[in-house]
Each structure stands twice: as C-alpha cells, then as structure tokens.
Design brief:
441 residues; three-stranded mixed sheet; three-stranded antiparallel sheet; mainly alpha
Length: 441
Amino acid sequence: MDNIDSSKGLNDFLPIQDWFNEMHAKNTSQKVRAVLKNKGESGISLANNVPYGYKKDENDKTKWLVDETPAEIVKEIFSLFVQGHGTCEIARILRERKILTPSEYNASIYTSSNTNHQEYQYKWCGTTVACILDRQEYIGDTVNFKCTTRSYKDKTRVKLPKEDRKVFKNTHEPIIDEYTWNIAKQLRNNRKKPTRSGKKSIFSGLLFCNDCGMKMYFQSPVKDLKNKDHYRCSSYKHDTSLCTSHYISDEVLQVIVLENIQKVVSYMKNFEDLFIKEQLAKSTQDELKQISKNKKELEQAKKRIIEIDNLFMHIYEDNVSGKITDDRFRNLSFNYDKEQQELKIKIEQLSKDIENTEKKDTNITQFISNVKKYTEITKLSPEILNELIEKIIIHQSERVNGKKVQEIDIYYRGVGIISFPVSLEDMTLIIDKMLNKRISA
C-alpha cells in the first residue's frame, strides 16, 4: 500500500514507517486483549468451541445447552473411570463401539459431508479421554483464562497457572455432578501405572501412611510367588531411614475394608435417622466456632487490603511532594505489596474453608444416597471404593500381648470416620426394648 519497491531504492522514511506500523499492530493487540479480558471477567466464556457434550444456543451464542447424544458418552466416560478403567482402556472401549470422537462428531454435525478418511474414524485415544475428565465445565462452571499467546508477534499458545484462571460457578446446565467430578479428579491426581506383573490395585490413590503422610506403594512380586501382594510406605521404599514399612497385605486389607463397608451399609439401612443426627451433632460446636473465627479473620483481611490501598496512595502523594525519599517509598511500597499478596492468598483459603464446612449437610445427603445404591456388597470393586471412601490411613503394626495389632482408619467421603459405639445387633435390641416400653406404657 505504501508503493515500496526495493529495486527502485529504499525510502529514507522506511524505518519510521515500519516503526509506526509496528506500534499500530501492538496497540491493536492491546485493545483486543483488553476487550477479551473484560469479557472473560464478566463470566462470558472465551472458548470459540464448546466442550464435547454441549452446543451453543441458537438464540444466544454465549449460552451453552446440553447436547444429549455426546452428553451420554461423557457420562459413560466418567462412570467407567470411577469404576477403575484407565484412560487408554476407555478409549479402546469407545473405539470398539465405533463412537465418533469429538472432532468427528462436530464434522458430522456442522459439515454436509464427513471429510475424515474412513481409516481415521473412531480414533479415540487416552489423551482425548483425559482432557474430558479434566474439564471443569462439565459440572456447570465457566473457566476463563486457561491459556494465552506470548505476544502479538508470537501466537504460540501458553498455559496459564491455575491461580490466574477465573472460575464462574453454575453458569450452565451440568452434565456431571460435582461429587463424581471430584472423585475423578482425585483419581487423576493419584493415577498409577500397573506393576511389572501387570496387576493393578483397587485401592490406588486411597492408601496413605499414618506417620509421614505419603502414599502406600503397591507391590506384586513377579519372581517370589510365596510373597503376597502387599503395600509399603513409599518413603520407606525409597529410603528406609525416612519411615517404617507399614506393611499390610492386599488380601488382609480387602477383608477389613469389606467388613467395615458392610457394617456401614447395614447401619444406613436400619438406622439412617440416627446416623444423620450423629453426623450433624459430631463436632458441631467446634465447627461453629471455627466458622465464626474464619469469618472474623476473613473480614479483617478484607479491611486490611482496603487500608493498604489507602496507605499506598498516601505514601505516593508524600513521595511526589518530597516528604519521603524515593528509597523509603520503594521499601514501603514493597512491604505493603507483599502483605497485600499474602492477605489475598489467606482470603482465598479462608473462603474455601468456610464453604467446605457449610457444605456438610450436602455431603451427608450425598453419602447416604451413594450407600443406598448398594443393597448388599459381597466383593470390593474400584467403583465402590472410589464412591464411598475418601482415604485409608495405615498405621505401623505393633506387638500387644504377643499378638500383631495394626490400626487402620477408613475415612468415608463427606463424613469422615464412622464409628459404631455398639454392635448393630445390640443396637437393634436396645431399640426393641425402648419400643416395648412405650407400648406397655
């Protein structure tokens, strides 16, 4: 457009023209980024393409609607994963059933003819399944600022850290309930490769050492067939001076956990109302005090952030007027900025703690609902364990009166450790006696 022809010689103003063009491109980029930032901070999704399982509302392109056909596949993927299937195994199942991949499904919907070659159809892979499992959008949330470009010159996509992302809750209809998504998230964080023998532990990601807090390592001997499948503390495995073994065999652990779950199922079936009362009463006073304390600290932190903003304005004015030196201003502004960042982290943590404590009623209801799905449990499965149990703490075994004793703490999701003050049989007899007394009276 500037009629520049190098064969006729270059204009002396060419460097200046280039500089102006560069500044125009940079300025345009900054304006586009500002618009996108305002849009993202308002809660509108910045994604050009909706996640697999959703479609855009024809009347309002900013809204997402559930697309029933792929949504069922998403639900099945989460269900299979909770049942203990790996991402690659799920991909194989979908390939065998000839389910269209997200890109193939979009091509079949939005183009008149499928441009994909026949040999590339239904090519599900573990990475695609993992991306679906990791998407928070499936519980009804909008997540903005996941990635960005390096600059207006370099369009390479760069992932942003989680603390820089903006999450807006309940912006569209969920496909997966939050309880199931959290289970899948925990399993993803604790995923483990199979042992050399090819075996997988059904307790993967659930076992932790009581003393050092590290995960328990599953070992399935290949050569020494006399040695049973067992678990050891991962710290002890790497360095025996860091911890003790906390050895427990897989067979023994399964028997103990199965028996405990069977008691819980029976307890829920016969004494549901009593269980709810006990859970709500358990540490209620302590929790109320903690909530009150956290809310007070949260309010103080918010007030302090406002105070720091005002203080910064004052020291800035004093610096401009010459009342304080530049070095003094730099030191004060650095300390105030550091304190403000620490307060923001504290506010975020306190808000999460308050929210988690206030969600106790919902957690109890969800736990009871999950227990009711199982009328009788005769064998453990990854699905049962992941739905009902949050973690299992293994203590080091001890010798008591010449017998080996080992303590195990089973934490159930949303309710923690469930204790049985008396046996279920004794409890039934007590209730029967109470009823008989009322009838005779």
